[in-house]
Amino acid sequence: xxxxxxxxxxxxxxxxxxxxxxxxxxxxxLCNLLAxxxxxxxxxxxxxxxx
Length: 51
Hints:
Number of helices: 2
Strand content: under 5%
Structural class: mainly alpha
Radius of gyration: 20 Å
Helix content: 55-70%
Distance between the termini: 47 Å
Low-confidence stretches: none
Largest sheet: none
Mean pLDDT: 80
Order of helices and strands: HH
């Protein structure tokens, strides 16, 4: 009972989100590829850094 009322409270407070379109999907894919490239570049140096 408490869980359902909590979900209803959160649902009413959450902002409406736009529908997914191919452009939104393309943006997400490009951002993920950029993040992977940055991670690959930053992590490729083995045994460096603290720890």
